[in-house]
Amino acid sequence: MPSRIYDDNRYEEAIEEIEPTPVAESDAGILSRVADQLGDGLLATSERFGDPSVTVSADALHGLMTWLQADGFVLLSDLTAWDDHPRTDPRFWVIYQLTNVTSREILTVRVGLPEKKPEIASVTDIWPGANFLEREVYDLMGITFKNHPNLKRIMMPEEWEGHPLRRDYPAIYEEVQFTHNFDEIQRRKPYATE
């Protein structure tokens, strides 16, 4: 068996080429399998640049996620949220990135939530790693995850008011300090007196 030793010019290609593992092809694409599974809970499907995406109702989310995990999507790659302000119906989108590590399929699951009382079922019972991701979304966007084991702020202090990643959160501006305005800005800065 040839070794994986590089020749004298180690920046050239290796002596032994490594063959890529072929991607497993499933009988039906993930979008059609999700459509068969969900029925009316499926609101939309799309595929952009070869990446499949589904939009589902909040009521159908937990059942879909349980089915997807049993179908091989064992990796929750990411969980995030997006504020579509000034739109209000839906205003918030919770976005899940899932990966099937055996078939190398990826899937984006999106759920729209209203402006008033945005809440959705937690998926920590399916993917325990969602714990901190859901807490981050709760802390920065104000979306509540029902049945979360420890839903509290994770980045901002407990006494913080508001959710800083919402688009209607007031922006805070601090003037940039340069050599020409150094003294002027220093005079206006509040410093601790103790």
Largest sheet: 5 strands, mixed
Termini separation: 72 Å
Overall average residue pLDDT: 85
Percent range of helical residues: 10-25%
Structural class given helices, strands, pairing? alpha/beta
The CATH class, by name, is Alpha Beta
CATH architecture classification: 2-Layer Sandwich
- Compute the number of structural domains: 1
Describe the protein's topology:
Layout: H1 30-38, E1 42-48, E2 51-56, H2 58-70, E3 75-83, E4 92-100, E5 105-113, E6 119-121, H3 130-141, E7 144-146, H4 182-188
Parallel strand pairs: 2-5, 6-7
Antiparallel strand pairs: 1-2, 3-4, 4-5
3D structure, described in words:
The chain is α/β, with parallel strands linked by helices and 194 residues long. It has one domain: NADH:ubiquinone oxidoreductase Nqo5 subunit (Beta Polymerase, domain 2, 2-Layer Sandwich), CATH 3.30.460.80. The protein has helices at residues 30-38, 58-70, 130-141, 182-188, and strands at 42-48, 51-56, 75-83, 92-100, 105-113, 119-121, 144-146. The protein has a five-stranded mixed beta sheet with strand order 1-2-5-4-3. Strands 6-7 form a two-stranded parallel ribbon. The chain is elongated and about 65 Å long.
